[in-house]
Amino acid sequence: MTRFLVLGAGFVAEPVVEYLSRNKSNRITLADYDYANTQKVANKYPHISNLQIDVSNKADLTKLIKDKHVVLSLVPAPFHALVAQVCIEQKSHLVTASYETDAMRELAQKAKAAGIIILNEIGLDPGIDHLSAMEIIDTAHKNGEEIESFTSWCGGIPAPDNNNNPLGYKFSWEPRGALMALLNDAVYLDKDEVIKVKGKDLLLWSKPMKIANLDLEGYPNRESISYKKIYAIESAKTILRGTLRYQGFSQIIQSAKLLGLLNPKTIAIPKDISWRDFMVALNGENDLKNIQSNLDKKSLNALQWLGYFSDEKVTVKPSVLDAFCALLLQKLSYKEDEKDMVILQHEFVIKKSDGSRYNLTSVLKQIGEVGGYSAMAKTVGYPAAMAAQLIADNKIKNKGLILPVTKDIYQPILAALKIEGIVFHENTTQNPKG
Fold this sequence. Notes:
By secondary structure, the chain is α/β, with parallel strands linked by helices. It contains 16 helices and 16 strands. α3 crosses α4 and α10 packs across α13.
């Protein structure tokens, strides 16, 4: 019997619990700050116990983790390091879908000494992208081939039938994290040249592209160059990992950024002020028309549709960004009969041993189910659960801080994902330069 602890009962939790519940010898505890959220999930599945916890309370966390074999942390990323510390002390394995951070890296030696696995980056992006990329890369290396270029794009967006707002985007969770990511710098490699994109210019970089017969756009995501080492593709001259959106998103959000709507600094928002008056005050203008006249037509129409120039009252929040998010969540949430979509594409230029080259494109397109899981919940939750089960079954031999880039992880999880209908479609073409 394996005892699992799932921390966090948000939108990803149910597919995690559902998958682990398929094994009748598993016992699962689901814990969240909001007890009602845990109850909704626990009521649906056998062998589930649920409770309320504040994950910032180390003493309570220690009591909860003490007898668990594997912990899955689905809480916000800043809490993972504390969870990891307790897991090391209690010798419990840990799985997260979040990026490996410096705080996690500082715990690497302690985790190894404790004989536990801390596996990060096993969701969708990061996660499934690693699995599918490494399968292609290892196959190329086995055939004596070199990776010359690797670009990867991923996005969670509305399904085409439900892409019915000017922003071309919807939220199934709190928008703050997605918007904060738009303030980050990005670094990538282009023909052996290191390209740095400042956070203020990130959305200006955005480029149109056609993927899976959809008109999309993409911009770079965080730091891409370290994947030369992580993926063992030292021969690659181009490495770029980026985010996908429908065309127009970047232009509109860049306008919102210039208007100060993405400012995360604490501010006193007046009670009962309208968005119209707040926008005027925020931009130091006397007249709303002065603000609107500086906007392109697409951005103006979108921000008007969203209500940022209306008489609607601003929700009092700690920052302008939080107030901005509150209205976005109100206007851009998925309805019960609407579906989301995940698009993930890898593009490789691969050099054969005879010097010729070919292009390999691998695409995953996943659409959510009305009345079932969203595509995002499924593609984040299932890989995390599958990895946790592999650890419980002693199928992963490496200990310490690891990423899902080795064959003992990516092969069984890709096979299990295929059973769930999460499948990549590959296409190869002759490279004109090869």
